[in-house]
Design a protein that fits this description.
Layout: E1 4-9, H1 17-25, E2 30-35, H2 37-43, E3 54-57, E4 60-62, H3 65-76, H4 83-104, H5 111-139, H6 152-166, H7 176-180, H8 182-192, H9 195-202
Parallel strand pairs: 1-2
Antiparallel strand pairs: 1-3, 3-4
Helix pairs in contact: 1-3, 1-6, 1-9, 4-5, 4-6, 6-8
Bound molecules: glutathione.
Glutathione (GSH) binds at residues 14-15, 50-53, 63-66, 97.
């Protein structure tokens, strides 16, 4: 049996969190190595692309959160067998990766510069992606993004929408998702109450 170690920041979000949920849903026993930002600074240069998440399988490093999500999703039954539904799932994973880049561009800014960048983000890319994701959810039938069942795409959207609605991004209104893409709010509640997601968070208490 292979050994799995996931290295990511010590918070229940970001690119690492959907992988943690999927690993748990897959029944894969893994080391959940949570690192602080100073620890990341020390190890950054030694990772392949100076970034996390990193999944080690039997000690061998693999990167790229969406590739890892797909791999674990296949084991967990959280990735479509059907090619078209798999494409739909991948489209969502890719869109969220792009959105992450736009959000991260505003990190580290301060005061007025931060306010302006976040307002531009809200009016621009965030609106574009929230509306686009809402349409992709409707394409999937309204409940899930692909295959009429929960996939890693749903997990990734769930984590992102939960973060956006938490108010942890200054100058991003907490009700933005509700106003622009109410279907994503219902989706967050649906995924958050899925027994596999509930079971994962029970391990976090
Ligand atoms: N495409 C990569 C992006 C990885 C990435 O940018 N990770 C962020 C954390 S979520 C990071 O490590 N940033 C550190 C840095 O850029 O120095 C993936 O999906 O895994």
């Amino acid at each position: 049996m292979s050994s799995y170690k996931l290295i990511y920041f010590d918070f229940d979000g970001g690119r690492g969190e959907p992988i943690r949920i999927a690993l748990h849903a897959a029944g894969i026993d893994f080391e959940d190595k949570r690192i602080s930002f100073p620890e990341f600074g020390e190890m950054r240069q030694s990772t392949r692309f100076n970034s996390v998440p990193v999944l080690e399988i039997d000690g061998a490093e693999v990167t790229q959160s969406n590739a890892i999500s797909r791999y674990v999703g296949k084991i967990a039954g959280l990735y479509p067998d059907d090619d078209l539904q798999a494409l739909y799932c991948d489209e969502v994973l890719g869109a969220l990766e792009d959105l992450s880049h736009y959000i991260v561009q505003t990190f580290g800014l301060q005061d007025e510069e931060l306010r302006l960048a976040r307002e531009k983000l809200v009016e621009g890319w965030l609106s574009v992606y929230l509306r686009g994701l809402d349409k992709l959810l409707a394409r999937g039938g309204g409940e899930y993004f692909a295959g009429n069942e929960m996939t890693v795409a749903d997990l990734k959207v769930f984590v992102q929408i939960r973060s956006l609605r938490s108010g942890n991004l200054d100058h991003v209104p907490k009700d933005l998702v509700q106003r622009l893409a109410p279907g994503l709010v219902e989706h967050q509640q649906r995924i958050g109450s899925d027994p596999r997601v509930v079971a994962y968070y029970a391990t976090r208490q």
